[in-house]
Structures are given as C-alpha cells and as structure tokens.
Write a structure and sequence with these properties.
The protein is an alpha+beta fold. The protein has one domain: OB fold (Dihydrolipoamide Acetyltransferase, E2P) (Beta Barrel). Helix content is 26%, strand content 41%. Strand 1 and strand 2 form a beta hairpin.
C-alpha cells in the first residue's frame, strides 16, 4: 500500500510538472480590457476579459484570461482603458480551477500607442 501511494504521488507530481512547463500555444492578443478582477474562495486568481475589435462599430470578440503574477496584474490595472497587447501562454489539462479559470495565462502586458 505504501508503495502504491508513493507511486501515485510521483505520477501526480510528474503530471503537474509536465502540464505547467509545456505550453500548448503562446502568442499575443490586442484590445481593451473590459473586465479585471480577483476571484476565488480559497485560491485567489486574477481573471480578466479583453475586448478585441477588428473594425470600429462592430461587436467585439471577448477573450478571457488569467494572470498568475501579481506584478503583471498590478501593471494591467494601471493601464485600464488603454489599448494593450497581452502576451499569453495556453496550458491545457490543468486539473483544477485553483490555478485559474481559463487555459490562457498572461505573462506580459504592453501598451499600444
């Protein structure tokens, strides 16, 4: 039984290491931050929504994202209302929403002039 639990622990730890170190995709998205907040009962995460428009006057496409880093979250809060470019990485198959409600994790914010 002890061997089984040890093996189960190492399999779970290996899975998490793989999931958090191999991103499925990465890229940039540009638009205006429509919503940004901290959510969660026990595991607090920074969640946001980017409104991306292609042509003025058309309905924007909304893109939801998560931020892990408090410094990036503070930087994003300072530039609300300005057009931003968000660099993200997509991590799939994360086992719980404790790490974030989306699969897109923003790690860099740039203001587009």
């Amino acid at each position: 039984m002890k061997l089984f639990l040890t093996l189960l622990f190492f399999v779970g730890a290996s899975y998490l290491i793989i999931v958090f170190n191999l991103s499925y995709s990465d890229g940039n998205r540009a638009g205006y931050i429509q919503k940004f907040s901290t959510k969660g009962w026990m595991c607090k995460t920074h969640e946001g929504e980017l409104a991306m428009t292609t042509v003025p006057g058309t309905a924007p496409v909304l893109w939801e994202f998560t931020i892990w880093d408090d410094k990036v979250a503070a930087q994003l809060s300072e530039v609300m209302g300005k057009r931003v470019i968000l660099h993200y990485k997509e991590y799939r198959y994360i086992p719980t929403t404790c790490f974030g409600e989306t699969t897109y994790f923003v790690d860099k914010v740039e203001v587009q002039e």
